[in-house]
Amino acid sequence: MKRLSLLAIIFAGLMLHAGFAQVALTFSPEKPSPGKKISFRYDASNTSLMGHENPVALVYLLEGKLPLVREVKLTGKGNKYAGEFTTNDTTRAFFISFGEEDKKDNNNDQGYYRLLYDETGKPVKGAKKDVASAFSSYGSIWGLKRNVEEALRLSREELAANSELNEKPLEVVKLLLLSKDKEDIERMKTLLNKLVANTSTTEADLSEAKIYFENSIKDKPRANEIDSIIRNRYPGGTWVKAEAQNKYYREKDPAKKELMFADLKKDIGEPDTDTKKQQLAGYAGNLAMAYGIAGNFDKLKEYTAYVSDKQYLASIYNSIAWKETGESVHAKPGNVALALPLSARSLELIREQQNDLSNKAPFRTEAEHRKSLDFTYGMYADTYALLLYHSGEFQKAYDIQKNAIELNKRKDVSMNESFAVYTQKAKGNEAAKAELESFVKDGRYSPAMKKQLQEIFLAEKKDAANWDSYIADLEAASIKAKKQELLKKMINLPAPGFKLRDMQGNEVTLASLKGKTVVVDFWATWCGPCIASFPGMKLAVEKYKDDKDVKFVFIDTWENGEKDEVKKNVGSFIEKNAYPFHVLMDEDSKVVEAFDVDGIPTKFIIDPGSRIRFKSVGFSGTADGLVNELALMIEMARGTTAGAPAKKAF
């Protein structure tokens, strides 16, 4: 009996394992062809969508450029679904992403994809190349995790199977661009140098070779040599126009810019093609913006007449109107009377676009397109409401801002701050207090909002002694909710070791920091969100300056230019802003790649056992919000047990 029971247990275990290992998605035919109908069956059991009742399937057709999206209607229920779609004759491969609201299933970051096959049963030429591009870059459109290794594997297979591709040096370089293999790098250099040596190579191809040497191979001297070659071979080439354009866009004086605009317009000639019209509109819009910011609204009107794209026009109007608001509910505004109609017009233009799909990106669904416009409308409505507030129209400001914060799901702290002020003006203290309490509990508040709540509380209770306990209770709810949110994001992966030098030339290794909780912040001097996050990071560093068990390192990466020049610029930036940061130089970008970073800023919280516990990407909040979130992450990370089972990967 014991033997039979043991066999039964083993059999049951194998069946359970087989259940979890089953393929969630199957296709018919197994080897689909371009221009044909494809059927599929999707089993959501044991996926992130298990138990969800209305998953949506989006098919992304890969055809050598950005993907084309198709919505597929699913039939079925109880985790078992089916669907079908037809590819184009030009389709070479496709991905399918399943989702419901904020939940997605991309096959545990491996992606659900299929190559298409020709009549001989071989993958269509370019199929693996397109899938590689999805893994290396644009797959983020549907939430696919960047996978450089998979991209390189597919790229090499494409090169091995596609002899025609090997005759195109730039195509080969594009496929190997992410490789750090020395042989691949030497191969790229050889191909590019042969291309440059060929006197019949076009200016466009030479310019592309220059960019690869400068930004990817990191050989600035060779890039400079190629730049000289371009100028000598093509003395009147497109580089002349490019320099004129760059000079135009850098010019701040509207009058000087206007003179340059006349030359650029003359160079374009008759705008008889869409390309020429778009180019002229770009120049004119930039000039209109310059005049609008300078307060010359007559010139603004003159040059916006060249702009027909409604979204571009709306962005111009909103940018100028926002400048006139003073950019804060607490700041002194500019010319509100002139800015109000511009802001109102920006909202009208966005609303007109809601049902106009002519500007919809091919990789976005109609719902995604409208959602994007809703987000834009919310931002522009924030501008309009602030102008109304400065005009004394408090009720209108309240109504507009209420809609704006709902479109943003009450997540934007600066918008919440304005709304709290408008609420107090339009609805009174009680209504404002209720909104402020809600924002504090959700953790979506600023110091100014906390001060506003305190003033209302003291005016109502006249009891300063109870304020501390009152706000502590509200913030405790916020902290509890935030901890629960962070707990879901907590990970447990070994941190890649690194050995870098700081600005003083001292060597710093991750191993030397073992036993401490380490905050690693990847950044660059050209990165706007990185710089925007630094006031908050400064507060965080100062908060923990006396805590010997917490260490911050700021790893500068992905910079362009000579090493000495980059180091000098980084040092000047840090010194100018008086940031108390310990900066390490990732000069060859190896550490940022080892940490699998897709974009910056990206922060990692590493526990005392050198395991990554949190990964935070981007920045769009407030300095205080960043400090509070980091503090929670640090406390949660330092309280973990090294070697505990991983909950999820990143």
Q: How would you portray this structure in words?
A:
This protein has 650 residues and is of the alpha+beta class. It folds into four domains: 25-167, Sandwich (Immunoglobulin-like); 182-235; 242-361 and 371-484, Serine Threonine Protein Phosphatase 5, Tetratricopeptide repeat; 493-638, Glutaredoxin, CATH 3.40.30. It is 53% helix and 13% strand. It is built from 23 helices and 17 strands. It has helices at 2-21, 127-136, 148-161, 169-176, 182-197, 203-216, 220-233, 238-250, 254-268, 274-294, 297-304, 310-325, 336-353, 366-390, 394-407, 413-427, 429-442, 447-461, 467-489, 528-543, 563-577, 590-594, 623-638, and strands at residues 25-28, 37-43, 56-62, 68-72, 75-77, 80-86, 93-100, 103-105, 112-115, 493-494, 499-502, 507-509, 517-523, 550-556, 583-585, 602-606, 611-617. The strands form three sheets. The chain has an eight-stranded mixed beta sheet, covered by helices on one side. Strands 3, 4, 7, 8 and 9 form a five-stranded antiparallel beta sheet that branches. α10 (274-294) packs antiparallel against α11 (297-304) and α20 (528-543) packs across α23 (623-638). It is globular.
